[in-house]
Design a protein that fits this description.
Layout: H1 6-15, E1 25-28, E2 33-35, E3 49-52, H2 55-60, E4 64-65, H3 79-96, H4 105-111, H5 116-127
Helix pairs in contact: 3-5, 4-5
Length: 134
């Protein structure tokens, strides 16, 4: 989907569309901040939002970068995806050693620095499977 019109950008922003990440940034007049379209910050009123193609354009207009989503950095890796990737590697290593019962959810979560409940949730969200099914 192209994000060339303000309406398309607003739609992507309200849905936190991952496909829009890197295509544009949006600014909030009331806070003088600009963010990525996937930023977890509270959504501003439509009347306070402006759209820019690049972070440099937003900075030239007088906005500063969001400290939460860091839109000025080109390739920010998603920490959830990194955690799930590391866990998958650990699970596969345990399977190769023919010891699948040795790895527990609690241990996997601890190794990636998350609580077991949150780890289980993001693992299922990212892979479509629970760690046990994987």
């Amino acid at each position: 989907m192209s994000f060339t019109t303000d309406n398309a950008r607003w739609r992507a922003l309200t849905h936190r569309d991952p496909a829009a990440n890197g295509k544009f940034v949006y600014s909030v007049k009331s806070t003088n901040i600009y963010c990525r379209p996937i930023c977890a910050a509270r959504l501003a009123r439509r009347a306070n939002c402006g759209f820019y193609k690049t972070p440099a354009e937003a900075e030239a207009a007088g906005f500063r970068a969001c400290k939460r989503c860091k839109p000025e950095i080109e390739n920010v890796e998603n920490p959830q995806e990194l955690a799930v990737g590391k866990a998958c590697t650990l699970i596969e290593r345990a399977m190769k050693e023919d010891d699948p019962k040795s790895i527990k959810l609690r241990d996997l979560a601890k190794s990636v620095g998350l609580t077991p409940r949150y780890f289980h949730k993001i693992f299922k969200d990212k892979t479509g499977l629970t760690p046990k099914e994987y």
